[in-house]
Amino acid sequence: MKDQPILVTGGCGFVGRHVVRYLLLRGSPRAIWLVDNLFSGLVPEVWLPSRFTRRATSPTCTILSDGEITITFLRQDIRQFLGECLRNANEPSLPRFGDVIHLASVVGGRGLIDGDPLLVATDMAIDTDLFHWARTVKPDRLLYASSSAAYPVHLQGESDAVALSEDFIDFGDRMGLPDMTYGWSKLTGEYLARIASRHYGLHTCCVRPFSGYGEDQEPVYPVPAIAERAARKEDPLTVWGTGHQGRDFVHIDDCVELMFRVLGEVSDGSAVNIGSGVLTTFIQVAELFAEISGYSPTVEPLVDKPVGVQNRYANTSLVQKRFGWSPKISLREGFERVFEAARNPTSKFSFLDKT
After folding, report:
1. Domain interval for residue 97
2. What DSSP string runs through 13-76?
3. Within a domain: residue 344?
């Protein structure tokens, strides 16, 4: 598996870029394939290390290399890609992939989740096609990126919020209501991962990231958006909702590191939380960014904006016990990195040049 090509669906998005960074730091495999329609992603030339140069290109395919590692980018809707693979199964034009990291989905922050739920529901079709393809081509290992949005929303209120434990999602007879169509898509994706393992013998695993963030995250998400406002020293400094909503923030580098550990050790389609176990309100987020920026604004709530559930944070008992894992990057360190990228946008992708 170490030297076999790896496929990253949604590979040009926020998480995908950091998966690629992780692979480059590791130095393997020698061939990385990315499929992305750029709904929210960026072309690789924008964010890949400068040592990668274009070797070939067409309207839908770009090949880049640094002399040792080759990255093939297919600018294509994932469902179209999977359909073509299945239709040409008898005459395959693609390599056999060792690992598949499935990140492709319709994402765009709370505004999209609440504003266009039927568009987000497209993710259910994407995941169905992905697992149907995997059943046919049988990659060595497959990681499904689920979400903490799959957890029942009745456990995430103002007065009854609890640390969300992996076993709170029960595929037996106690199914709770997840968060909008995005939560439903991730819940059904996890169910398909279990079926792929138990019925078809595929090595599958799922991860449930909580509120991942990082330097190059799109400003439709709260952490980079608040950081940009703080970098401009806006006063008042606004947050969506009352600001008392809480989330479990974890830097994307910590997320990706655990994702690959889970891929190596979990094969039955079950899921693992990725979170810090600490609840931080958006008012606290704004206050920390203001402190980093060196000013003292009034934090102003925008109660007419979509906010999602009141409180969402991880129970980290399983991940600590089974993997001995906890985030390495503190909230302050991570936010300082995000603030520097907001203050100096030309540095936004400099993290990749460190590979």
Report:
1. 6-214+249-275+313-328
2. SHHHHHHHHHHHHHT--SEEEEEE--SS---HHHHS-TT-EEEEE-SSEEEEE-SS-EEEEEES
3. no
What is the CA 181 to chain-centroid distance, rounded?
Answer: 17
Q: pLDDT tens digits, residue range 36-54? A: 999 989 999 999 999 999 9
This prediction's pTM: 0.94
- Cα–Cα distances in angstroms (integers) from residue 94 to residues 21, 32, 33, 76, 272, in the given order: 23, 12, 10, 15, 31
CATH number at residue 45: 3.40.50.720
Please give the radius of gyration of the chain, using alpha carbons only, rounded to the nearest integer.
20
**Residue type at position 147:** S
Buried-state track 257-281, b at ≥16 Cβ within 10 A, e below 16:
bbbbbbbeebeebbbbbbbbbbbbb
The list of the chain residues with pLDDT below 50 reads none
**Do 165 and 315 meet the contact criterion of CB atoms below 8 Å apart?**
yes
DSSP secondary structure string, 206-217?
EEEE-EEE-TT-
Give the pLDDT of residue 173: 64
Which residue type, as a one-letter code, is found at position 5? Answer: P
Give the helix ranges, DSSP H, for 138-213. Answer: 180-200
pLDDT at 91: 67
Task: Please indicate, yes or no, if residue 220 is contained in any of the structural domains.
Answer: no
- Residue 27: half-sphere exposure toward Cβ, Cα within 13 Å: 0
Q: What is the pLDDT of residue 176?
A: 80
